[in-house]
Structure formats: C-alpha cells, structure tokens
Amino acid sequence: MKRKLLKRGFLSLLRMALTLSMIAPVAALAQTKRVTGKVTSSVNSEALQGVNVLVKGDSRKGAITDNQGTFSLEASPSDVLVVSFIGFKSKEFKVGNETTFNVTLDEDATQLTELIVTGTRNTGRTILETPVPVDVISIKDIMGELPQMDLAQMLAYVAPSFNAIRSQGGDLDSHVDPVQLRNMAPNQILVLINGKRRHTSALLITGTAVGSPSTSVDMLTIPAASIDRVEILRDGAAAQYGSDAVAGVVNIILKKGTNKLTGSLTGGGYLNSGGSAGALTNAGKPDGFNYQFDANYGFKIADRGYLNISGQITQRRPTLRPFVNDWGFYDNTYLSNLRTDKYGNPIITNPELISAQAAGNTTQIAALQTQDGLMSARGLTKADFAVYAGMPAVTLGSTFYNAGYEISPNTTLYSFGGASYKYLQGYSCYFRRPSQTDRFNYLLYPNGFRPQMTSNTSDFSNTTGIKSKVGEFSVDFSNTFGRNAMRIGMVNTMNASLGSNSPVNMYLGTHQFSQNSTNLDFSRYFKGIMNGLNVAFGAEMRIENYKILKGQDESYSYGDAGILTVTKAGALVGPDGKPLENASSVPIVDATGLPLQVYAGQQVTVKNLSSNCQCFAGFGPKNERNEYRTTMAAYLDAELELTRKFLVAAAVRLENYSDFGGVSIGKLAARYSLSNKLTLRASIASGFRAPSLQELNYTHTATAFVPDANGVPQPLDVTTYPTNSTAARVLGIKGLRQENSRTYGLGMTYQPTRGFEVTVDAYQIDVDNRIFRTSYFNASEVGNNYGEVIGGGEAQFFVNGANVRSRGIEFVGNYTYNLSRNKTLNFTLAAIFSKNTILSRKTLDLKVANLNPEQVVEKYLSRDVIGQFETGTPRTKLIGSASYRFNKVNVMLRGTYFGSVTERSISSDDNGNYYDQTFSAQTIFDLSVGYDLTRNLKLSIGGSNIFDRYPDILRSENQGFYLYSNNQQGSNGAYYYGRVMFNF
C-alpha cells in the first residue's frame, strides 16, 4: 500500500508540473532577439567567466558568461542589460538595435552581490535576495591569504557556523576531520560538488565533538586549488536535496577557467613551546612541518568547451604533545625479576640487577630495584613513557578535473571528479607500560611500547551529465559515482596472546563505502505568472554499499602463549615445585590454598594475556559486512514572486528507502523586501535522516582506558555491537530508527550603503531519535548469563538516545571601502550564538539484573555524552578580520573567539562531586602579509595563533590521553608559514 501511495504521489507531482507548464502564457514579446557578447577585465583584458548579464527589472531573465567570457540571451530593443561580477563595477546599457556587445568591467572590491546556485533552482538570485541564509566564500581569492591549507580548516576560520574539529587522538577519529554546521552532528550536513551529492568517507567517526557517531565527507581529498567558491546554505534543506541536509548544505563549485596556470608552494611548522602544563609536558623543537604544492590549469576544447585540471601534493609531519605522567612504569615483579612464564620458569626482566648482585654492589642493587634507578641505568626518563597526542603525519596526493563541452546553444555535456590517495600515521594510543603484565612481552618490547595507527585511503569520484532543453524546460540528467576505501593498519604493536611470535606491524582490515546517484531534473521559469514563477521537479535513485573486510589473523585472534596443555595429572606446579602464577604473579591455587589439581590433556589459562592487536583490534570474520541500500526520491520545488517585494518558495520531497520505507517532507520559505535596503526572510522545513549503513553495521573491539581508584587509566576491551546483533537483542536494545527533524528560521538582510552588508538569522532545529552511543555494559551488571554472549570485556551500542534541540543566532557583516585607486580596506565580523539541549532522553526496559532503573538510564545515555552535546563545543564563536591592500602589499589580521566549554564527567569523588570542568574562552589571532613581487609572482608570510595560546589544562582527575581540551583551538600552539604563489 505504501509503495502504491508513493507511486501515486510521484505521478501527481508530474501532473502538477505539466499543468503549470500548460497554463503558462506562451506569448512572448514579439520584438525579442538573440543578443550575444563578450565580457573582459579592464586590468589585463582577460575574459571573465561567471559574469551575470541580466535584464533590468527581471532578474530571472539573463545569462552567465562561459569560460571564454561570452554570453547569449533573448532580449528586446527596449531592455536594459545589467552586467555585474563580484569585485568589479557593474555596467548598464540599452539593447537598442545592436545584437553584439563587447563589455569591459573595471575592478571594484565593493561589489559583492554574486549570484548563487545553492538553496534555489532559480538562476539569478543573489545572497541578499534569498529567502534563507547562504554564505559565498571565494576560495580562489582567499586561499593565498590564509595560514590554513586544506578546505575544511579554511572554512572553519571564515564561516562561524562551520566547524571542522581536528582530533589529536582517539584511535581512527584523527584520520578524518568531521565537518559540522550550526553545532549539529557531521552526518546532518550535506556536501555537494557542483550541485551533486558527494559521497562520505567509509570511516564511522565514533567520537565527535557533539557526542554522536557520524560519517563525514573527507574534505582533505578535495584540492583547494580546484575550487572557485563554496556556498554554505544555513538552513534545513532535506526537502530540496535529500537526506542529511538537516543543518544545511555545503556546495563546492569547481573552477572552469582556461589558459591560465595558477599555483602555490607553502611550507610551515609549529613552534611547540609546550604550553603551560609545566612538568607534565616539555617544550620541544619546532615540529609539525608541512609542505604543500598545488596547481591549476585549464584547456580550451575547440573554443566550445573547457577542461580544468587541479593537483595537490601534501606532506605533513606529526605534532607531538606528550603527557609526561607518573603512572608506575615498572612494578615490583619487573624490578625484582619475579615474573615467570606459563611453565613456571623465571623471566629475567631486570638483567642489570642480576649483574649488580653478581658484583656484590649493594648501592647499585638498591638503586636498580627502584623505578628511577632502573630508568637511569637504561638512559630513560619519564618522557620516554609519555602518552602522545597531536596531529598525525599525512602524505596526500590528489587531482580533480572539471570539464564541459557545448554541443549546441542549448545542449552541454559536462563531467567532473577526482582521485586521491592519503597515507596517515597517528599517535592515538596509550603507551603500553611494562607494569601492564597482560599486554607485555619482554623479548619484543622490554620497556613497553607505543602503538601507532595507520590508514591508506583511496578516494575516487566521477560525475557525467548533460544539460539541454525539452520544449521550454531546462533538463539536467547526470550520474555520480563515488568510492572511499580505507585500509587500516597498526605499527609498533603486538598480540600479547601470541607471545614472542606476534608480528609487530599488522593489517587490521579495510572499510569501503561507495555511492551511485542518478538524477533527472527539470526546471522552467514562467514570466507571466504574478511577477514570475520558477518550477523545478525531478527524481533521484541512489545506491549505497558499505563493506568491512577482515584483516590478518594475528590482528584479531587469541593465541596460546598463556595457555598450558597439561601433560601429566597432578598439581599445577612449576619446576621449583611451587604453584604456577598468573599474569599478575599471583599463585594459582584452589579454595584451600593448595596447588590446583589438573588432569592430563587439560588446557589451563595460566597467563590471561590480552588477545588481538594492541590498542585497536583487527576486524575479523565476525566483523565482516557487505550491505546495500537503495533510495528512490522525487521532488517538486517552486519559487513564486507574488510582487517585486514578496517571494514565496516551497518544496516537497518523497523518498523511499529499501530498509526504512517511505517518507514525505516539505519546506516553505518567504522573503519580503521592506525597502531596497532591508529585507526580512523566514523558513520552516521538515527533514528525515535514515541511519547510515556505517551506523547500522559497524562492529569492532577497541581498548578503552578507565581510571582506577588512584586515577591511573587501566585498559578495558570494549566491543561495539550493531543493534541487530545477539548482544543487543538479549539486552533489549532495539534496532535503530530514522531521525526526524523540524527546522525554523527567521532573519533579515540589510545593505545601508554600497559595500556594506549585514545579515542576521535566528534558527531552531528539533531532531527526534538522535543517535548516540551508550556507555559500557558488562556481564556482571547485566547478569542473566550475559557473559556467554559477549565473552570478556564490555559491550556498547548505537541507540536513538534522545530528542534534541539546537538554537542559535547568526550574524554576518562585511564592509569594503575604497580609499583610493590602489588602496582598499575591508572589515568583516561574523558570529554564532548557539545552544544545544537534550529535550528528552529515550530509555528502554532493558533486561539488566544488577542495576537499578536510574543506573540503566545513565548507561543508556550517560551524562558525559549529554555534556558533550550540550556544552562540549563552544556555544559562541566570533570571527573578526581586517584586510588592507596598498599597491603591491596586502595585510590581513583576523581574530577568532571560541566561547567557554564545559565537559561533564561520569567519575566523582567520595562525596559524589563529579569531576566536571569549564574551560575559559579563548581568542587567537592569525596574520598574513603579502607582497606582489611581479605581476605573476606573490610572496606571503604569516601565522595562525601567532601569540601561541593554549587552552586550559585538564584537571588532574581527567588527565589521561590529553592534557588540554581539544574542542576549542586545540593544543598545537602557534603555527608560522611562508608561501609563494604564481599565475601565468
């Protein structure tokens, strides 16, 4: 029945669109004619691509210049054409009897009303005319002035509502920078390239800044050199673009230019002063050195097309921010040679002590039986056992292309896409200390070891399509394919249960995500209805596939290094006649204290050694997945100008998921111009997001560290189970449901004078059934023989944990002033004031025997996860910048303010006081100074966080992997760079 209703609904949409086309007036102005022309720059006579040529008084009628700077449109002799382009003075001229025009535009930085394509399917809309907020960021213009080199970090420091928090640890969480909008989760933002859906990374990021497991587009795989501009739609747009567009849309527009080579070479590094943690860290030499080369060039294709190619090579060294702790690196059994193997034979872990005892050196004997004495003898310090946080090392190569060819005046073939390869090695694991006897092997790592995670990521994408006309309708048919594959590894590790035969470098498995989208879109503008009606409708079919491929056997298996097969019945004793000892050097005895009695052939676990690859277990056969999803969608989108001042827009979308059924969502928006300077706008929208295939199917075992009574983190193996697993069903965890959302927006735009623009927008986003991750459930808490299901370790799950709300106010202001012909001053101020709230927590009647209802609620959605969502990221973010250009010199100074952050803990003191902490607000400054050496060569130097500000240090009870909060500017400190840019 549901499928029939969807089919009927889709047919109704098509009938509605055809009816609109039939009732539209077909009579055009009898005197219209084809007008052509070319637009060039007065500075260098170069053709200008992307210039807007509109009929005055009718912004829906016009054209945009191609890569040759040419345009073509229908106009009457009485029409006045307006030619405008960002950064140039606009020009107007009457058509008259002419049919060909050559237009030269003069530069003027105060012209900032560029046309946009995101959030509207009506060409000719400017930023200040849209019924919803859209930011336009010209990447090609700003990338030479910013210290940041990759796209995500650039946007995070110019758009306050956009975040890309770069993790400095957390297993694989540092391998992709998750992007966010309006402090919502990364999987609630939709990324497009040239208006087509971009595939996400295969990686499921389990620890995000807002506490939700999420997938995210890996923007590092998109070279900034290939990008013309980025349009950020800050409004719910699921009805227009489909699932994931709950918080908004980021549309990346690629370059089309030809016959011009541009590029840059950048090098930089971090000061690494050590911050303010005192003895807990130590200042090192400058680190994190990075180098990046990028270039872009476009080719003409027979004067009717273009092929624009970009490439980027990046090399980043790691930043190391050590936590120099004192957690007891050697225990007494190590220092005094008291350890034995599974057969009861002694293991010599302190040969220095044996030598001192043989020499009868009592002073040395006493010293070597202490931690500091042995460290001194081996030339070690506490820093050698430190936990390392910091940015990973990255080697990246990527290339992108954008191509188009005009078959006829109304038909154009187009294609774009790219490929990239990224190798990443990060410090995201705790140091394994010799005192951790279940994870130690003297022959492999006598002083312990620090595992490191690696990933080899290949990314490929391609879009091919055709734009044409069918009658009066513009048609766009396209197919987009994208695939991201991440091969995960570990170096400097081992599987302790395999003993000395364990490999130290391991392949852990591969995650792969692919997506294919086929789109058919129609649009038409009806001039005679009211003041103009634009109708668009279309359909989409999307196929997704998620795979987990297993790693090598040693990465996930349990070996027999600690298991003894008894050869002779009797007492379980060693060669000295004493009981065998377990991994903690405790004798294995029966209830009476006598050696355990065993029988021949019995297998006894003498040493309970940790299985799997240390830090991050490999993916085994039980983790393998190969899951598919198909989505069908149809939409209708309309914009009606009731009057010159009043615009109403509406959209409705029907989607059907092969695994979640059908849904209908809609959107209504309006804009009213109170004057030619002041405009009000508002919107209301519903949304729908089905859990990603990664969220539905991810399963894995990792090592978490939980502080003991002394505050020392102790290892704990935790397995994340999918909700369709036996572990979930036995506990009472239900399958994941879709997230439903409602978005409300209200705003205004104000342009009091030329070059001065202000927008203010308020929003509220309500999301039902938001997905979070539970806390840990162990067998003793659950009871009911739960240990038979999950074995050792603990279990956690992804669940629909709460209904949530995000509210905020956004402000964007820009003022550009031309002091004289060669002097320009620009000021920008942008801010977001936001608040996230848990409206209600979802709880289930779980089958837990040994926890009370309050404890079950806390396990299902713990207070630290709630805190991460509500207060774990800055609620306030302000960005203010000033740039000044004088002849060949340009200077940019930018300040970024991150509001305070409060992290909530699940640990407390004896009086029940939680170890919560509020981190003070932080302000950092970026600076760049550029000089035009020649017309074709420019030099730029500067830095980010130039005053070397570090966040507040964590309170002692919360110091584990990190020393500093990671949710403001991070703990990398000051970064300085130099850059050479060229264009020929």
Write up this protein.
This protein is mostly beta strands and 984 residues long. The chain contains 14 helices and 48 strands. The two termini are 63 Å apart. Helix 6 runs antiparallel to helix 7 (362-368). The strands form ten sheets. The protein has a 22-stranded antiparallel β-barrel. Strands 10-15-16-13-14 form a five-stranded mixed beta sheet. Strands 3-2-5-6 form a four-stranded antiparallel beta sheet, with no helix packed on it.
**Residue-averaged pLDDT:** 89
Radius of gyration: 32 Å
Structural class: mainly beta
What shape does the CA trace take?
A: elongated
**Poorly predicted sequence stretches spanning 5 or more consecutive residues:** 1-30, 109-113
Task: Please describe the biggest sheet, giving its number of strands, its sense, and whether it closes into a barrel.
Answer: 22 strands, antiparallel, barrel
Number of strands: 48
- Assess the beta-strand content as a share of residues: 35-45%
Give the fraction of residues assigned to helices.
10-25%
Number of helices: 14
What oligomeric arrangement do these chains adopt? single chain
The span between the termini is: 63 Å
